[in-house]
Amino acid sequence: MMIFKTARRSALIAVAGVAVAALSACSAGQISQTSDQVAAVDGASANTADKSIAVRDVTVIVDEDQTAALKFTAVNTDTTMKDHTLKSVKVDGKEIQLSEKPKIERNCSVVADSKDNIELLKKNDNVCIIYIDTELPNDGFAVGGQKPVTFEFDSGKIEMNATIAANHNEDVAGNRVEAPKAH
Protein backbone atom coordinates (compact mmCIF):
# COMPACT_ATOMS: atom_id res chain seq x y z
CA MET A 1 0.00 0.00 0.00
CA MET A 2 2.87 2.33 0.83
CA ILE A 3 4.43 1.66 -2.58
CA PHE A 4 1.24 2.84 -4.34
CA LYS A 5 1.13 6.06 -2.29
CA THR A 6 4.77 6.80 -3.08
CA ALA A 7 4.26 5.97 -6.76
CA ARG A 8 1.10 8.11 -6.90
CA ARG A 9 2.88 10.99 -5.17
CA SER A 10 5.85 10.70 -7.56
CA ALA A 11 3.51 10.61 -10.56
CA LEU A 12 1.62 13.66 -9.30
CA ILE A 13 4.88 15.58 -8.81
CA ALA A 14 6.07 14.55 -12.28
CA VAL A 15 2.79 15.66 -13.92
CA ALA A 16 2.92 19.00 -12.06
CA GLY A 17 6.53 19.52 -13.14
CA VAL A 18 5.73 18.76 -16.78
CA ALA A 19 2.71 21.11 -16.65
CA VAL A 20 4.80 23.95 -15.22
CA ALA A 21 7.51 23.43 -17.84
CA ALA A 22 4.99 23.24 -20.68
CA LEU A 23 3.04 26.31 -19.60
CA SER A 24 6.08 28.47 -18.96
CA ALA A 25 7.75 27.42 -22.21
CA CYS A 26 4.83 28.73 -24.26
CA SER A 27 6.11 32.28 -23.99
CA ALA A 28 9.80 31.60 -23.60
CA GLY A 29 11.76 33.08 -26.49
CA GLN A 30 8.64 34.18 -28.32
CA ILE A 31 8.25 37.68 -29.69
CA SER A 32 5.11 39.33 -28.40
CA GLN A 33 2.90 41.48 -30.61
CA THR A 34 3.75 44.62 -28.63
CA SER A 35 7.50 44.10 -28.36
CA ASP A 36 8.25 46.09 -31.49
CA GLN A 37 5.50 48.69 -31.37
CA VAL A 38 6.33 52.35 -30.97
CA ALA A 39 4.24 55.22 -29.73
CA ALA A 40 1.75 56.65 -32.21
CA VAL A 41 3.19 60.08 -31.45
CA ASP A 42 6.88 60.58 -32.15
CA GLY A 43 7.63 63.68 -30.07
CA ALA A 44 8.01 64.14 -26.33
CA SER A 45 5.01 64.37 -23.97
CA ALA A 46 4.45 65.94 -20.53
CA ASN A 47 1.82 67.60 -18.31
CA THR A 48 1.64 70.58 -15.99
CA ALA A 49 2.05 69.62 -12.32
CA ASP A 50 -1.70 70.01 -11.73
CA LYS A 51 -2.48 67.96 -14.89
CA SER A 52 -4.55 70.83 -16.34
CA ILE A 53 -2.56 70.95 -19.60
CA ALA A 54 -0.98 68.11 -21.56
CA VAL A 55 1.56 68.70 -24.34
CA ARG A 56 2.17 65.98 -26.89
CA ASP A 57 4.35 65.37 -29.94
CA VAL A 58 6.84 68.09 -29.00
CA THR A 59 9.51 68.18 -31.73
CA VAL A 60 11.87 70.82 -33.10
CA ILE A 61 11.44 70.66 -36.89
CA VAL A 62 14.30 71.75 -39.18
CA ASP A 63 13.61 72.48 -42.87
CA GLU A 64 15.98 72.09 -45.82
CA ASP A 65 16.56 75.86 -45.84
CA GLN A 66 17.67 75.59 -42.19
CA THR A 67 14.63 77.40 -40.81
CA ALA A 68 13.12 75.83 -37.71
CA ALA A 69 9.76 75.52 -35.99
CA LEU A 70 8.39 73.85 -32.88
CA LYS A 71 5.72 71.24 -33.50
CA PHE A 72 3.41 70.38 -30.59
CA THR A 73 -0.15 69.80 -29.49
CA ALA A 74 -1.38 71.27 -26.21
CA VAL A 75 -4.64 69.98 -24.72
CA ASN A 76 -6.70 71.51 -21.91
CA THR A 77 -7.40 68.51 -19.66
CA ASP A 78 -8.50 70.53 -16.63
CA THR A 79 -11.31 68.75 -14.80
CA THR A 80 -12.47 72.03 -13.22
CA MET A 81 -13.68 73.22 -16.65
CA LYS A 82 -11.32 76.24 -16.54
CA ASP A 83 -9.89 77.85 -19.68
CA HIS A 84 -6.09 78.20 -19.86
CA THR A 85 -3.72 80.43 -21.81
CA LEU A 86 -0.42 79.62 -23.48
CA LYS A 87 1.85 82.47 -22.36
CA SER A 88 5.20 81.57 -23.95
CA VAL A 89 7.42 78.80 -25.26
CA LYS A 90 11.21 78.69 -25.10
CA VAL A 91 13.61 76.37 -26.89
CA ASP A 92 17.09 76.18 -25.39
CA GLY A 93 16.27 79.27 -23.31
CA LYS A 94 15.20 81.43 -26.28
CA GLU A 95 11.57 82.48 -26.70
CA ILE A 96 10.04 81.32 -29.97
CA GLN A 97 7.61 83.29 -32.13
CA LEU A 98 3.98 82.18 -31.86
CA SER A 99 1.40 83.50 -34.33
CA GLU A 100 -0.90 83.89 -31.31
CA LYS A 101 -1.04 83.07 -27.60
CA PRO A 102 -4.40 81.35 -27.49
CA LYS A 103 -6.86 80.79 -24.71
CA ILE A 104 -7.57 77.05 -24.64
CA GLU A 105 -11.06 76.03 -23.57
CA ARG A 106 -11.75 72.76 -21.72
CA ASN A 107 -11.27 69.70 -24.01
CA CYS A 108 -9.86 71.93 -26.74
CA SER A 109 -6.38 71.80 -28.18
CA VAL A 110 -3.73 73.90 -29.87
CA VAL A 111 -1.88 72.38 -32.82
CA ALA A 112 1.37 74.20 -33.60
CA ASP A 113 3.92 73.79 -36.38
CA SER A 114 5.61 75.84 -39.09
CA LYS A 115 3.33 78.05 -41.19
CA ASP A 116 3.77 75.79 -44.23
CA ASN A 117 2.95 72.62 -42.29
CA ILE A 118 -0.11 74.19 -40.64
CA GLU A 119 -1.39 75.14 -44.11
CA LEU A 120 -1.12 71.47 -45.18
CA LEU A 121 -3.36 70.27 -42.34
CA LYS A 122 -7.00 69.50 -43.02
CA LYS A 123 -9.05 71.72 -40.72
CA ASN A 124 -12.29 70.44 -39.23
CA ASP A 125 -14.76 73.06 -38.05
CA ASN A 126 -16.57 70.49 -35.90
CA VAL A 127 -13.70 70.09 -33.44
CA CYS A 128 -12.23 72.54 -30.97
CA ILE A 129 -8.70 72.96 -32.39
CA ILE A 130 -6.73 76.21 -32.62
CA TYR A 131 -3.94 76.17 -35.23
CA ILE A 132 -0.90 78.39 -34.67
CA ASP A 133 2.40 78.93 -36.49
CA THR A 134 5.74 78.75 -34.73
CA GLU A 135 9.15 79.97 -35.76
CA LEU A 136 12.52 79.95 -34.06
CA PRO A 137 16.08 80.76 -35.04
CA ASN A 138 18.05 77.72 -36.11
CA ASP A 139 21.28 78.04 -34.19
CA GLY A 140 22.77 74.92 -35.75
CA PHE A 141 20.21 72.35 -34.59
CA ALA A 142 21.58 68.87 -35.20
CA VAL A 143 18.92 66.49 -36.52
CA GLY A 144 18.68 63.60 -34.07
CA GLY A 145 19.75 65.72 -31.12
CA GLN A 146 17.63 67.23 -28.36
CA LYS A 147 17.01 70.69 -26.93
CA PRO A 148 15.26 71.75 -23.71
CA VAL A 149 11.78 73.21 -24.22
CA THR A 150 9.80 75.22 -21.64
CA PHE A 151 6.08 75.87 -22.04
CA GLU A 152 4.53 78.50 -19.80
CA PHE A 153 0.77 78.33 -19.28
CA ASP A 154 -1.28 80.33 -16.79
CA SER A 155 -1.52 77.12 -14.73
CA GLY A 156 2.21 76.37 -14.66
CA LYS A 157 5.34 75.47 -16.58
CA ILE A 158 6.24 72.31 -18.43
CA GLU A 159 9.94 71.61 -18.95
CA MET A 160 11.09 68.78 -21.19
CA ASN A 161 13.58 67.78 -23.87
CA ALA A 162 12.41 67.71 -27.49
CA THR A 163 13.96 65.73 -30.31
CA ILE A 164 15.24 67.65 -33.33
CA ALA A 165 13.90 66.18 -36.58
CA ALA A 166 13.98 66.95 -40.27
CA ASN A 167 10.73 68.17 -41.84
CA HIS A 168 8.84 65.13 -43.16
CA ASN A 169 6.61 67.24 -45.40
CA GLU A 170 9.41 67.54 -47.96
CA ASP A 171 10.79 64.89 -50.27
CA VAL A 172 14.53 64.30 -50.63
CA ALA A 173 14.74 67.05 -53.27
CA GLY A 174 13.15 69.58 -50.91
CA ASN A 175 9.80 69.68 -52.74
CA ARG A 176 6.65 70.20 -50.66
CA VAL A 177 4.59 67.05 -50.23
CA GLU A 178 0.84 67.56 -50.10
CA ALA A 179 -1.15 66.10 -47.23
CA PRO A 180 -2.84 62.81 -48.16
CA LYS A 181 -6.43 63.10 -49.34
CA ALA A 182 -9.13 61.68 -47.05
CA HIS A 183 -11.08 58.78 -48.55
CATH topology of one domain: Immunoglobulin-like
Shape: elongated
What share of the residues lie within helices? 10-25%
Mean pLDDT over all positions: 82
- H/E element sequence: HEEEEEEEEHEEE
Query: What is the assigned CATH homologous superfamily of one domain?
Result: PCu(A)C copper chaperone
Low-confidence stretches: 179-183
Which second-level CATH architecture of one domain applies? Sandwich
Number of strands: 11
What is the count of DSSP helices, taking H or I runs of 4+ residues?
A: 2
C-alpha-based Rg, rounded: 26 Å
Terminal CA distance reads: 77 Å
- Tell me what portion of residues adopts beta-strand conformation: 35-45%
Structural class: alpha+beta
Q: What is the CATH C level class of one domain, in words?
A: Mainly Beta
The biggest sheet, with number of strands, parallel, antiparallel or mixed sense and barrel status, is: 11 strands, mixed
What is the topological layout?
Blueprint: H1 2-25, E1 44-47, E2 53-62, E3 68-76, E4 84-91, E5 94-95, E6 97-98, E7 103-104, E8 109-113, H2 115-120, E9 129-135, E10 146-153, E11 156-166
Parallel strand pairs: 2-11, 8-9
Antiparallel strand pairs: 1-2, 2-3, 3-8, 4-5, 4-7, 4-10, 6-9, 10-11
Keywords:
183 residues, 11 strands, 2 helices, Immunoglobulin-like, 11-stranded mixed β-sheet
